[in-house]
């Protein structure tokens, strides 16, 4: 079963299946809040779109996944999930299909490994969720349970690097990210252009912002496609910390701030949607932020505060 990046839907099956998907490797420009237009490449759903990140794939342990790659660009690219599949180099203008069987439940990043890390940084990345066989509410057999699940894919963008790569050149300056996104979007503070528009505002994007009533425990599969290490911080509730970089933790800690490695770091956490313990007067409704604890990640273009990688958590 396939879902858009962010909120995932899933119904368990009693049998394995073959899941097929076509990704078009495309390129284009995306306008930023300061008026700049930045070059990207993506694993896209159509030849005339640019999807950053690529669509999420949610499958079940034992499924066979078939990915057809259509390289529309003038350079070679690849599709890799570390430890699972490597398409090898797909030359410019060519198409290749790869098949692989998923055997271990968990959260994975798919990405273009060629010219590493440049193609991944240009936008060629996405998420794969593998559910345990027959389960609808566990990350791995015996894990704490949840009722809904999301992807949060963080990214940081240096437009100078993107421009040199567009021209076929190697970046020759220090990496200085100026834009920070979650699931391809930045935040928009109230009153700003695009505020409240789910196509522009990560704080109101239903794939990204957490929505729930008390008891709607939410698994969040967190991936870092960028270079910068981050610290993920939630308000309202502490997170239940299940894994780090694909490794199941021996104990489930509750923390409100968890370190996320740069360069493909990964976390799995549950936001429990419990009555916020510090709210006064006590309440089961309200809105709380999620943001990163590196100050630059909350900005865009070096000064647009609250236009970075942040979202909201809605108790409804």
TrEMBL record:
Pfam families: Cu-oxidase_3. It comes from the Bacteria. Residues 52-132 form the Plastocyanin-like domain. Gene3D superfamilies: Cupredoxins - blue copper proteins. One of its GO terms (molecular function) is copper ion binding. Keywords: Copper, Metal-binding, Oxidoreductase. This is Multicopper oxidase type 3.
């Amino acid at each position: 079963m396939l879902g858009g990046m962010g909120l995932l839907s899933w119904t368990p099956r009693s049998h394995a299946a073959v899941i097929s998907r076509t990704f078009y490797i495309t390129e284009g420009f995306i306008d930023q809040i300061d008026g700049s237009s930045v070059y990207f490449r993506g694993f896209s759903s159509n030849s005339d779109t640019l999807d950053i990140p690529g669509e999420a794939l949610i499958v079940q342990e034992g499924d066979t996944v078939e990915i057809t790659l259509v390289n529309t660009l003038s350079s070679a690219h690849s599709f890799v999930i570390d430890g699972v599949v490597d398409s090898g180099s797909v030359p410019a203008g060519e198409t290749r299909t790869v098949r692989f069987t998923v055997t271990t439940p968990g959260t994975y990043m798919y990405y273009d490994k060629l010219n590493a890390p440049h193609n991944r940084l240009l936008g060629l990345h996405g998420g794969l969720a593998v559910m345990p066989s027959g389960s609808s509410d566990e990350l791995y057999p015996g894990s704490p349970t949840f009722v809904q699940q999301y992807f949060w894919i963080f990214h940081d963008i240096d437009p100078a690097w993107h421009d040199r790569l567009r021209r076929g050149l190697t970046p020759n300056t220090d990496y200085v990210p100026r834009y920070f996104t979650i699931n391809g979007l930045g935040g928009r503070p109230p009153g700003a252009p695009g505020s409240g528009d789910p196509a522009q505002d990560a704080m109101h994007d239903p794939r990204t912002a957490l929505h729930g009533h008390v008891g709607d425990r939410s698994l969040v599969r967190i991936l870092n496609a960028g270079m910068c290490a981050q610290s993920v911080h939630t308000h309202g509730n502490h997170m239940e910390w299940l894994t780090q970089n694909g490794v199941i933790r021996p104990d489930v800690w509750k923390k409100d701030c968890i370190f996320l490695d740069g360069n493909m770091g990964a976390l799995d956490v549950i936001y429990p949607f419990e009555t916020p313990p510090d709210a006064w007067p006590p309440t089961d409704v309200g809105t709380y932020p999620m943001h990163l604890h590196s100050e630059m990640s909350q900005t865009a273009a070096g000064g647009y505060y609250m236009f970075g990688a942040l979202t909201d958590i809605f108790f409804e």
